[in-house]
Specification:
Length: about 130
């Protein structure tokens, strides 16, 4: 059983590395510049999971990149929240969650972290 779990974990990690290794160009409707407060039209080049360049006509410079068109989206930098409760079932009120096992609280924590990330928060402090 341990060998099967280890094999699956290694296989999944290889798949994630393979998907990160490709070049991707994001083509949103607009991008927010937080320093100027202005919205502008540009593309974003992502390689190995990191933003390499923001500019115009990037698809002409990087012909082998996968282009993802986002015509209805405005991209913003990741948001920060200094007071979140990731662990546990956030729908429980008062002391209802006090009898929750640490394993179940961890599962809820993963779910809550994913929802927080999908809401645009890339930096949080769990309190």
């Amino acid at each position: 059983m341990k060998k099967l779990t280890l094999t699956i974990a290694i296989f999944c990690s290889l798949l994630s590395v393979q998907s990160i290794a490709e070049s991707v160009i994001l083509n949103p409707h607009q991008i927010l510049n937080v320093q100027s407060g202005q919205l502008y039209k540009a593309q974003i080049l992502v390689e190995n999971g990191k933003i390499i360049q923001i500019g115009s006509n990037l698809n002409k410079k990087t012909a082998d990149a996968k282009i993802i068109n986002l015509p209805d989206l405005t991209l913003i930098p990741g948001l920060m929240d200094a007071h979140v409760h990731l662990m546990g079932n956030t729908e429980l009120k008062g002391y209802a969650g006090i009898s929750e096992s640490s394993q179940l609280a961890t599962i809820y924590g993963v779910k809550n972290a994913k929802n927080t990330l999908l809401a645009g928060f890339t930096t949080v402090r769990d309190v």
